[in-house]
Amino acid sequence: MGDQINDNSFINNYNDLQIYRAALYNANDIIILFSSEGNILKANKKAIDSYGYNKEELLSKNIFELRKREKPEIINAQFKRAKFGEIEFQTRHYRKDGSRFPVEVKSIGVEIDNHKFILSIIRDITNRIKNEKETRELASLVENTEDAIIGKNLEGIITSWNRGAENIYGYKKEETIGKHISIIIPEEKIDDFYKIMQKIKNDDKIKGFESIRKKKDGNLINVSITVSPIYDLEGNLIGASNITRDITDTKRIEKELRDKYEEISALYEELMATEEELRANYQELEEAKEEADKANKAKSEFLANMSHEIRTPMNGIIGLIDLLELTKLNNHQKEYLDMFRYSSRLLLSILNSILDISKIESGKFELNLKPFNLKKTLDRITKELSIACNNKSLEVFYYIDPYISFDLIGDEIRLNQVLINLINNAIKFTEKGQIIFKVKKINSSNNKSTLEFSVQDTGIGVKEEFKNDIFKKFVQQDMTYTKKYYGTGLGLAISRDIAKLMNGDIWFDSVENKGSTFYFTAEFLLDYTKDTYSKNLDLSDNKMTLNKAKRILIVEDNEINMKIACEMIERLGYKFECAYNGKQALEILKESPFDIILMDIQMPELNGYDTTKIIRKGEIGTQKHIHIIAMTAYSMNGDRETCIEMGMDDYISKPFDINTLKNVVLKFI
């Protein structure tokens, strides 16, 4: 019987041991038995899975390999403490693949058969650290969000208060914790609290509830509130969390938008009514427009026909006046003839103005572009101006910009028409004082020049109420029956249209009873076929005579450009020869040397770039270097650099004047 009891006891103890071993081996935590030197003696399944070793590999490791990169003295100190007691700490362990993970270690010393061992229970705390980090980040987000996040218990006592709440309500956290939520609720809105808390107790969530709240300074604000219940760890309701957003500006903008919408709606209705009215009258307006177009066309045709019809006999009358002047006349007849000539020319001027207006209105008014010399035109105008001013005892002054290119292409007759009209008006409306006529260059490009003409007087000026109408047709400042100054009111209207055709403008400055200044701008083409450079050339310059022995080769395929370049070089005093393409230039260079080559770029047979390459190739290994200057119409950004890259020494763009050519030649001579 006693033996049986002992057997049963052994069996029970053995079964318990197996259970304990199975439990330890399959535990969720890592369990490792270390020798006193730190070698791994036993390890459970969690350890094998966590470190990535198989059982044999893991049992061949020691604590120092699990905690590599950590100071050995720290590990030894912890082991020593564990041998004689118990120790808890956090560290990092390394897997087989070299990755590491955070662990929480609890080690205790055990004695078996008088031998010391260390039993360590190791827990992977990766998820716990991650959760703690997320919790900290969430807490920081809650604390620093712009919205007010307020916690309160079921009685309404404030338990938390973030920075957003401080900014919105003006209270610091220490001023609110432990206070009732009613400190930020106006009296008339206190029922909000009880309604919200009743819903929270019914496990409801309130989202986007709009109400009024009170700031510390007493000001009221519009807010949008979201309220959520707060539970403890056992699931019991303990309070509520308010997320409050200040929507005062939003409500104000909404109101403004509503007001604008109502205003726009009213305007839209008004526009719709106007549209209906316009639609109703559209057909009538179309018919009126057609009638007006017909009337305007008939008027223009009538004016054109009448002007032409009247001009025929008028030419006869003026011709007869000229013939009568050749006969013997007494003093009375001469006086009558002068009056006749004046009246006929005045009538012809009126007819010409009417004809111009009819051409403009019918779209037939065009400029006649021809080469002319502006200096001759201005000389004639200033002479006539001086004579007219002398007749009225007016002082006359004029200024002409010295940098103007006088050889132009444009409509000289129309230019003269505008200037004479402006000058005659100035003389007509000025009884005493002076007339100042100016011409200056505004800007110029390679082939165009814009000039500004101005006529200033000390006459009666323009009345303020007439300034907006002065360029309208058939309108005069004095329209009374006793008007002092004659005229049709067409001169300035025609001048305005001529200015537009010349890519210019016309305007004025005027002060009543003090005088006026009329400005007129026009654009002209530059005429390079004329000898415009001789006036700028100082033939007395000693530099012009020092280098006559220098020889220049001009390579140019255009006949006119060649002629201009040759004449410039000749006036500069240099010897030269001409070639009309690169091939011809190379033949000339074989026969005689030159100091400079003026090289065109675009040429038939052999262009300037290729010619330069051949010349530079022939200079390799010699001491020779002919200065080659590109002479081309290309003038875009980068063209000069391209010429230099091709082996040329400098660049001059067409069109150029003689001074520009002189400077570039002297640079190399």
Give the terminus-to-terminus CA distance: 140 Å
Name the beta content range.
Answer: 15-25%
Examine the coordinates and then state which fold CATH places here, giving the name of the CATH topology of the largest domain.
Heat Shock Protein 90
SSE-based structural type: alpha+beta
What kind of oligomer do you see? single chain
- As a whole number of angstroms, the C-alpha radius of gyration is 53 Å
Number of domains: 4
Total count of strands: 22
Mean pLDDT: 81
Low-pLDDT segments, ≥5 res: 479-484, 531-544
| Residues in helix, % | 40-55%
Given this structure, which CATH class of the largest domain is correct? Alpha Beta
Number of helices: 20
The CATH H-level superfamily of the largest domain is Histidine kinase-like ATPase, C-terminal domain
Main beta-sheet annotation: 7 strands, mixed
Name the CATH architecture of the largest domain: 2-Layer Sandwich
Shape: elongated
Mind explaining what this structure looks like?
This protein is α+β, with helices and mostly antiparallel strands and 669 residues long. The protein folds into four domains: 2-126, 2-Layer Sandwich (Beta-Lactamase); 145-246, Beta-Lactamase (2-Layer Sandwich); 366-526, Heat Shock Protein 90, CATH 3.30.565; 534-668, Response regulator (Rossmann fold, 3-Layer(aba) Sandwich), CATH 3.40.50.2300. It is 46% helix and 24% strand. The protein contains 20 helices and 22 strands. Strands 11, 12, 13, 14, 15, 16 and 17 form a seven-stranded mixed β-sheet that branches. Strands 2-1-5-4-3 form a five-stranded antiparallel β-sheet, with helices on both faces. Strands 7-6-10-9-8 form a five-stranded antiparallel β-sheet, with helices on both faces. Helix 10 (248-325) runs antiparallel to helix 11 and helix 11 (331-362) packs across helix 14 (491-501). Mean pLDDT is 81; it is low at 479-484 and 531-544.
